[in-house]
Amino acid sequence: MTALQGLAPAKINLTLHVTGQRDDGYHLLDSLVVFADMGDRLTCKLGEDRLTVDGPMGQGVPLGPDNLVRRAAALMGVEAAIHLEKHLPAAAGIGGGSSDAACALRMLRELTGKEVPDQGLGLGADVPVCMIARAAFMRGIGEDVTAVDLPPLHAVLVNPRVAVPTSAVFSGLASKVNPAMPPLPDGLPAADLIQWIAAQRNDLEPPAITAQPVISDVLAALRQTGAQLTRMSGSGATCFGLYPDAKRAADAAQSLQHSGWWVAATVLR
Ligand SMILES: C[C@](O)(CO)[C@H](O)COP(=O)(O)OP(=O)(O)OC[C@H]1O[C@@H](n2ccc(N)nc2=O)[C@H](O)[C@@H]1O
Ligand SMILES: Nc1ncnc2c1ncn2[C@@H]1O[C@H](COP(=O)(O)OP(=O)(O)OP(=O)(O)O)[C@@H](O)[C@H]1O
């Protein structure tokens, strides 16, 4: 029986503008999303229905039918043995569960030849963008995804090891209707792109900081490493800093190692 291996990369919202709210409570988003060169690792084989989890962040990940990779198999209508090597913190704003689900869906699509219903949206608003796992604009509640070419960005990701539930952060928004992103000019080199991103927002940052004030400390620590831009991703608590090159990102990550926080230097694409 063929076994496939895949990477479920961390998802980073470089910008996240909340522009409205639907009648069902879901929020309308305008977001520029990129993916790291690191993440969870999955192995998938059709046949026996089984999930095993290990890896440095495997503790506490649910093994039952509510795990998003099991829900991915159920959505595809197949039984599969899936092994998940967990490297990303959960409930962290970097789409750990959503990226796992998308990776499982891609592998199950390849193994079965079946189409993925609705790009996996039913498993979570972040799953459609995680299906393409490359730089994209994400709009609607997450279902409207358009790939975009960006220069690679050198980054450090920092999570203070506090879980932040997404729905609570959306509920804490002071305003549900905020300005959309302006159009991104074509072909910006990295330095200009970073300036453009700096002029945008993550509207979920203030309510996430209210829920977990340590996020302010993470942003301040990243600023102190000389990052060109610091911001929170998604609903938090993971924050990122952007740097001009890989050496400066690696040095910044090294200088944050003593914090006890989860720290990763990476390239975003
Ligand atoms: C914050 C983001 O990570 C930005 O990329 C996503 O919008 C959240 O994606 P996700 O975690 O896959 O979200 P889901 O699992 O679908 O939803 C979790 C909860 O977040 C809220 N939610 C999510 C997406 C959205 N567009 N509006 C919302 O209000 C809802 O309360 C929902 O019950
Ligand atoms: N494969 C999985 N990995 C991690 N958590 C999972 C998984 N499947 C289900 N969960 C559950 O989902 C919850 C949210 O985890 P996830 O990493 O998807 O969240 P997130 O940080 O909200 O992502 P986002 O960037 O979409 O906000 C966890 O607390 C966990 O109980």
Description:
This protein has helices at residues 68-76, 96-112, 127-132, 166-171, 190-198, 205-211, 214-224, 246-255; strands at 3-21, 27-46, 50-54, 80-85, 136-140, 144-147, 153-159, 229-232, 239-243, 262-268. It is of the alpha+beta class and 269 residues long. The chain has two domains: 3-146, Ribosomal Protein S5, domain 2; 149-268, GHMP kinase, C-terminal domain (Alpha-Beta Plaits, 2-Layer Sandwich). Strands 1, 2, 3, 4, 5 and 6 form a six-stranded mixed sheet that branches. A hairpin with a 6-residue loop joins strand 8 (229-232) and strand 9. Helix 1 packs parallel to helix 2 (96-112). The chain is globular and about 50 Å long. The mean pLDDT is 97. The chain binds 4-diphosphocytidyl-2-C-methyl-D-erythritol and adenosine-5'-triphosphate. The site of adenosine-5'-triphosphate has 21 residues, from helix 1 and helix 2. One of its GO terms (molecular function) is 4-(cytidine 5'-diphospho)-2-C-methyl-D-erythritol kinase activity. InterPro entries: GHMP_kinase_C_dom (IPR013750), GHMP_kinase_C_sf (IPR036554), GHMP_kinase_N_dom (IPR006204), IspE (IPR004424), Ribosomal_Su5_D2-typ_SF (IPR020568), Ribsml_uS5_D2-typ_fold_subgr (IPR014721). Catalyzes the phosphorylation of the position 2 hydroxy group of 4-diphosphocytidyl-2C-methyl-D-erythritol.
